[in-house]
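@channel sequence for tomorrow's demo:
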Amino acid sequence: MEAKVSEREELAKIVGNENVFDDPETIESYSKDGSFVHKIRPRCIAKPKDVGQIQTIVKWANDTSAPLVPVSSGPPRFRGDTIPSVGGAVIVDLSQMKRIIRVDRRNRVAMVEPGVTFTDLIPELNKHDLAPFMPLVPRGSKSVVASGLEREPITVPMHHWDVQDPVRCIEIIYGTGDLFRTGSAAGPGTLEEQWEVGRAQMRGIGPAHTDFARLIQGAQGTMGIVTWVSMGCKPLPKLKRTFLVGADRVEALIGFIYKLLWKKLGDDYIVLNNHDLASLLTNKREACNEVKASLPPWVFIFSIEGFGLLPEERVAYQETEFIEAAQSFGLVPTKVLNGIKAQVVEDVVACPSKEPYWKVRAKGGCHDIFFLTTLDKAPQFIRGMYDLAEANQYPTDEIGIYVQPSVQGTNCHCEFNLMYDPKNRGEADKVRMIDHKASRLFSRLGGFFSRPYGSWAEVAYGGAADVIIASRKVKDIFDPKGVMNPGKLCF
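structure tokens (generated this afternoon):
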């Protein structure tokens, strides 16, 4: 559906003619992604450059009832949350808003716009002896703001104190067109006046005692458009030591990891099966299979970072306690595991993915199934996935599995990566069927779909009528005309 001339002209007056796109090729690229969400073509794409333009677009949408779908990360996309659910939508692409507004070394906070990627942010933070909290090897085009808003798990559970972390304060244009700032950014005074007296927009709760950020995170753009986020950062380590711990069964690692979390040791805690680790370390399927064959079925990646006044001492005492704990569980930490060097793994995990994105290197496509559970329950979900894969004739040795302890180890992110050839209709249909069955099975087993993309919304909201009623009341307050990404979640 092509945009009407008058509508295109109205958007062009707001963002400039060169920043409105309605050619067939561009429209097609925003109508689909790597998910199984039904393809719908947007009306056009607008690329604003500042807060004022976004606010004007939202007010225009209220006047014209035009649906808006915010997008900040570049392709490839995989979740379906940026595909319109209704016809005639306008994609608001925020990728041109790339300012790193401020870096506060003392308070370890960076304020960034939605177009800033991890590739952009890392070198800038390094200048201030800081580093970002990152999800596991994000793609190079991944928006830092989008990652935080979607609550993607970070790899350092000991620095993860709340599900909201590392997000601090947020500036958002609600669906009403009103600008709002959460937490300590709300005032008193302007941001500049706050900076002058040493405030750093690092307290997320507020204004007053209401935590508005929790209404925005995970909302998939259904409440408004976020224009910047202040993100917590960590000190850039002066030294770092990484170990690999192999195991034949994931159960062998669980008690050990709980022990480390209880003793508050280390920084990175990452559990991968051999397929995912091999995919991270190689660029081609043949090389992936070769590396996978040399690895044990499960690998725990553990790192200790040295920072502060006594970095060497911090690493030394934690390394000693880590090795003692491993030995008590009959496990052997090593810096070289069957030819794979821990230093190589450390370097890969510390940066965004090289091209092509690591999840699509093997076959060109990947579908993720993920949810929250507790670490001790992860084995039952893994067995359930293997049973489903066998029943649907999907090779179990090609399932990538990622288990990430989070929030001080009180829960964990459990993720299955089903890699397939998107050009092979049979493979794609098989993965789609497994996704449908697995999401419902995992929900029955107690998995919590805190990020219900696409059809998972039925699983997350199916037995929660009270949540639906409350969510729709909140939606009516902040987006009364329903212009923000309609059709997503329970809206």
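heads up for whoever presents: The mean pLDDT is 96.
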